[in-house]
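Collaborator request, handled under Task 6.
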Amino acid sequence: MTKDKNDDPNLYDIEIDGLKIRWNRKPENWVDPDLSYDGSTEKIVVNRASYFDVNGKKTASEKDLAEYVRHIYYVLLTRGILGTHFFVCDGALRAHLRQHFA
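Structure tokens returned to the collaborator:
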């Protein structure tokens, strides 16, 4: 039986402050920098080109897609029983959110 290269225990796809973690075995199109922060408008914006759920964006207007993505993150961030850890890819959004989370 041939071992899948994605089963290598030394592989990781997240590194934060030297901590290397394996989150997903799929090697492409799973990290979506789909949210960013526009400092000039002071709004969180959805980057349609970086959102890869084809069914989610196929027929959605910009407003509907933004609401859909915000709802996805709301659900994900409120499921943690003992807390939730998340990493924000966009630096401006990370700085904005840091003001609201201790």
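The cover message to the collaborator said: "The longest helix spans residues 62-77. The longest strand covers residues 35-38. Please let us know whether this matches your experimental observations."
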